[in-house]
Amino acid sequence: MLLSRLSISARFLLVLAVGLVFQAGLSAVSLVNLRQSMVADRVTEVRHLVDVACSIVAFYHDEAARGAMTDQAARKAAAEAARAPAMTEQLAALDHGGRRLWNGRTPPRLRPATAAEAATWREAFAEAVADGDA
Hints:
Layout: H1 2-5, H2 8-66, H3 71-83, H4 87-90, E1 94-96, E2 99-101, H5 115-130
Antiparallel strand pairs: 1-2
């Protein structure tokens, strides 16, 4: 009834306005989903970078434990390696199915860590950060 009283141009504008509101709502939902996806990707990237940093610290910890380096030298080398700007590009280790991949291969020293090893690495890294070495 109400639509029959409107002129043709008013009906056309009404359809156009409804379409515009629908498009704006759809765009808003898409932007919210995009933001959530970007935040999730960033969290995953940071998690992988922390895994790489823990692997670096573990490597230098093992070197110091073998006696190949002094403890202080190993801490300094680990801090420098973890701080390297190219680390994010060259050491991009991605976790797929519990494995860490390095250019499609699984490197021997980036094996999945046991809970005890991971705790030791995190403690060593936290200690290095607290000492100002990292």
